[in-house]
Design brief:
Elements lengths: L1 H13 L14 E9 L2 H4 L4 E4 L3 E5 L4 E5 L8 E3 L6 H5 L4 E2 L3 E3 L2 E7 L8 E6 L5 E7 L13 E3 L4 E4 L7 E6 L5 E6 L7 E7 L2 E6 L6 E5 L6 E6 L6 E11 L2 E10 L6 E8 L25
Antiparallel strand pairs: 1-21, 2-3, 3-4, 4-5, 6-8, 7-8, 8-9, 9-10, 11-12, 12-13, 13-14, 15-16, 16-17, 17-18, 19-20, 20-21
Length: 298
C-alpha cells in the first residue's frame, strides 16, 4: 500500500500533463469609455497598444509612439515613421504587431510580409523608443505566418506568441534570450488573435473573428481557452491590440480597432471589471492574526 501511494505521488509530481492551472479568468467586464482617433493620429495607433501604468504605447505598421496614459492624443515621443531598424526595413520588414512593455523595455514583433521568412522581436527603450540593440529571430518553423503579437510574462520569466490563423498552439519563449522552451496545446483552436497580454496569470486575447470580435483567455499552464465575452462590433470592424492599465481604483482593459475603409479611423474602448473601484490587491503582505477570547468581538 505504501509503495502504491508513493508511486502515485511521484506520478503527480512528474507528469507534465498535470500542470497546475492559473487562477480563473475575469469575465465580468463592462465598457466604460471610447476614444476616437482620425487621420494620421488614427494610422499611428492602428495596430498594438501597451501600458506601463504612466504611459500608453501605440504601434502601427512602421512606427511607435508614446503618450500619457490619461491623454492618449498627446504624443510625448514620436517614432511613428522610423521605428523599424534600417537593416530590417531594407530587408522588407514592414509590419509591427501588438507590442508589450515590461521593466523599462518595449517588445515589438516585426514581420516581413508577405514572405514571413524572418519574424523578429526587437527591444526598445520605453523612454526614448530607440532600439536597445537587442533583437531576437524567432523560429520560422513555428511562427510560419509571421509574429502578430508578443506578450511578456515577467513573473514566469517568459514571453508568448502564436501563429495568426488556425492555430492550436501557444509558443513559450524564455524572456532572457527568446529561446523556444515550450509549446502548449490549446483546448481548442483560436484563430485570428490580433493582440494579447498577461493579466492575473492568464493570457487575455483580442480576436478579429467575424462580427463578434471576442475577448478570450488562455491559461498558459494548461492551454484551456475560455470565451469571456463578444464585443459585437460588426464585420467592417477589425480588432487590433489589447492592454491593461492598473490604477488605484482598479484595473482597466483597453482594446483598439479600426473601421475598414475609413481612412485613418482608430478607436480605443475601455473596459472595467464590474464593481471594481478598489485598489489592486497587495501581494506579499501578511498580517498576524490576533487571538480572540470567547465572547469578544472580532
Amino acid at each position: 500500500m505504501k509503495r502504491l501511494v508513493a508511486a502515485t505521488l511521484l506520478m503527480l509530481v512528474a507528469s507534465p500533463s498535470l500542470a497546475s492551472a492559473s487562477s480563473p479568468p475575469v469575465s465580468d467586464w463592462v465598457q466604460t469609455d471610447r476614444v476616437e482617433f482620425h487621420g494620421t493620429d488614427g494610422f499611428f495607433r492602428s495596430q498594438g497598444v501597451a501600458s506601463d501604468g504612466s504611459s500608453l504605447f501605440f504601434s502601427w505598421n512602421l512606427g511607435l509612439i508614446r503618450t500619457p496614459v490619461d491623454e492618449p492624443s498627446n504624443v510625448l515621443v514620436d517614432k511613428s515613421t522610423s521605428a523599424i531598424p534600417d537593416d530590417l526595413d531594407e530587408s522588407g520588414h514592414n509590419h509591427i504587431g501588438d507590442i508589450d512593455v515590461a521593466g523599462g523595455v518595449l517588445y515589438a514583433p516585426i514581420e516581413d510580409g508577405p514572405a514571413y521568412a524572418e519574424p523578429w522581436v526587437v527591444l526598445y527603450d520605453t523612454d526614448t523608443l530607440e532600439p536597445t540593440g537587442a533583437r531576437y529571430l524567432l523560429p520560422v518553423s513555428v511562427q510560419r505566418d509571421g509574429v502578430p503579437w508578443i506578450a511578456v510574462d515577467q513573473p514566469r520569466g517568459v514571453a508568448y506568441s502564436m501563429e495568426w490563423n488556425d492555430t492550436g498552439k501557444l509558443f513559450v519563449y524564455r524572456l532572457s534570450d527568446f529561446e523556444l522552451i515550450d509549446t502548449v496545446n490549446l483546448s481548442e483552436p483560436v484563430s485570428r488573435i490580433q493582440g494579447a497580454k498577461i493579466f492575473r496569470g492568464n493570457l487575455y486575447a483580442s480576436r478579429d473573428n467575424g462580427s463578434e470580435k471576442s475577448i478570450v483567455s488562455i491559461d498558459p499552464e494548461t492551454g484551456q481557452v475560455t470565451r469571456l465575452f463578444d464585443r459585437d462590433l460588426g464585420d467592417d470592424y477589425e480588432a487590433e491590440g489589447i492592454a491593461f492599465i492598473r490604477r488605484r481604483t482598479g484595473t482597466e482593459m483597453v482594446a483598439t480597432g479600426i473601421r475598414e475603409g475609413s481612412s485613418g479611423y482608430t478607436e480605443m474602448r475601455t473596459y472595467r471589471i464590474g464593481g471594481d473601484v478598489t485598489a489592486p490587491v497587495l501581494r506579499g503582505v501578511h498580517f498576524k492574526s490576533k487571538r480572540t477570547r470567547r465572547g469578544s468581538k472580532l
